[in-house]
């Protein structure tokens, strides 16, 4: 299904089936995710930045795909997420929507696209929904973003919040340190989690948070928590796809598990192609028109 074909309304039956295999003929919705939390079903989220990889993950049954502003470092060649623009997010998100049929597509609101005011947040969330066709947006910040989340939710925009380590604040943090360590920081994280739930967020990402604290937050919230570097007890887990599949060059963070070594596989394929061309063995007769 793409941005131009309407998503059928969820039925009672489809919100009680499992996310895996239970939702096949329409996109996953916020109601499906709420029902999964009720059942205690854990789910997975991956980032995607284009139609091709989005389609692969959709076919693999990943229920939620995040067009993360991690596109900045993982796809567009920037050092951080800070330079990513709204125009870039709209273009990447639209591609992921076009390449998928079933997954809920969540688009990140990039740095500078929502911090000025709730009205600015609304303007840019509307662009992601109208121009790219995404089903939800994600923005960083707990208590500090609550007013914007409230306005978006009132206007009918599903919002995923993101607290703990918020990469758009990399320059303020002086890097990517683990958050929520110590009593005061832990209390602030809990306040942030409750504030975004109260504001109407349908889910919240907890990034780089001690596992025991993430467990407490998960137990205290009615909405699903999505962990990244937050231990095993969150309701869902997200990884950046290039980390998960071994495309990232160099060191990956401690919380990443690499499920493949795609960088080596692709590099080997490219080297083999170049060697065949140099040797004159490609194209062979079977690749040649007569
Ligand atoms: O941009 C991103 O990929 C993210 C995830 C790390 C949650 O925000």
Straight-line N-to-C gap: 39 Å
User: What is the 3D form?
Assistant: globular
Order of helices and strands: HHHEHEHHEHEHEHHEHEEHH
- Main-sheet strand order equals 1-2-3-4-5-6-7-8
> Count of helical segments?
13
Structural class: alpha/beta
Helix content: 40-55%
- Residue stretches low in confidence (pLDDT < 50, at least 5 long) are 1-14
Strand content: 5-15%
Biggest pleated-sheet summary: 8 strands, parallel, barrel
Mean pLDDT, rounded to whole units?
A: 94
Number of distinct beta strands = 8
The bound ligands are: 3-methyl-2-oxobutanoic acid
Give Rg in angstroms: 20 Å
Descriptive account of the structure:
The protein has 290 residues and is of the alpha/beta class. 42% of the residues lie in helices and 13% in strands. Strands 1-2-3-4-5-6-7-8 form an 8-stranded parallel beta barrel, surrounded by 7 helices. Helix 8 (146-154) links the parallel strand 4 (136-140) and strand 5 (159-164). Helix 10 packs parallel to helix 11. It is globular, with a radius of gyration of 20 Å. Bound molecules: 3-methyl-2-oxobutanoic acid (KIV).
């Amino acid at each position: 299904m793409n941005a131009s074909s309407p998503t059928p309304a969820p039925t009672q039956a489809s919100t009680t089936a499992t996310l895996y295999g239970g939702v096949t003929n329409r996109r996953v919705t916020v109601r499906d995710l709420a029902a999964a939390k009720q059942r205690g079903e854990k789910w997975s989220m991956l980032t995607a930045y284009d139609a091709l990889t989005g389609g692969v993950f959709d076919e693999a049954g990943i229920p939620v795909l995040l067009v993360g502003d991690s596109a900045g470092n993982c796809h567009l060649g920037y050092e951080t997420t800070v330079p990513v623009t709204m125009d870039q997010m709209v273009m990447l998100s639209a591609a992921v929507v076009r390449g998928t049929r079933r997954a809920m597509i969540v688009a990140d609101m990039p740095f500078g696209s929502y911090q000025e005011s709730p009205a600015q947040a609304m303007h840019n969330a509307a662009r992601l929904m109208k121009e790219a066709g995404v089903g939800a947006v994600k923005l960083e910040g707990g208590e500090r973003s609550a007013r914007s989340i409230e306005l978006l939710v009132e206007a009918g925009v599903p919002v995923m919040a993101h607290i703990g380590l918020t990469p758009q604040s990399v320059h303020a943090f002086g890097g990517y340190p683990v958050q929520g360590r110590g009593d005061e920081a832990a209390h602030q994280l809990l306040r942030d989690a409750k504030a975004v739930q109260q504001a109407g967020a349908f889910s919240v990402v907890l990034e780089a948070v001690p596992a025991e604290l993430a467990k407490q937050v998960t137990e205290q919230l009615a909405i699903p928590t999505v962990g990244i570097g937050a231990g095993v007890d969150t309701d869902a887990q997200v990884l950046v796809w290039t980390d998960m599949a071994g495309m990232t060059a160099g060191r990956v963070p401690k919380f990443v598990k690499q499920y493949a070594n795609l960088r080596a596989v692709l590099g080997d394929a490219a080297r083999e192609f170049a060697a065949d061309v140099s040797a004159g063995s490609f194209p062979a007769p079977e690749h040649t028109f007569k």
